[in-house]
Amino acid sequence: AADMALYAAKDQGRDTIRLYDHEIGQRAYSRARLIRDLAEARESGQLRLDYQPVFDARTGEVQCAEALLRWHHPQRGLMAPLSFISLAEETGLIVPIGAWVLRQACSDAMGWPQPLKVAVNLSAVQLHSRGLVDEVRRVLADTGLPPHRLELELTESALVHDGEAVADTLVALHRLGVSLALDDFGTGFSSLSYLQRFRFDRLKIDRSFVQPLAGTPSAASIALVRAIVGLADALGMRCTAEGIEHAEQTRLLQGLGCGALQGFLLARPMPASQVGDCRAGEMPPGADERQTAPPRP
Ligand code: C2E
Ligand code: MG
Ligand code: MG
Ligand code: MG
Question: What is the pTM of this model?
Answer without folding.
Answer: 0.89
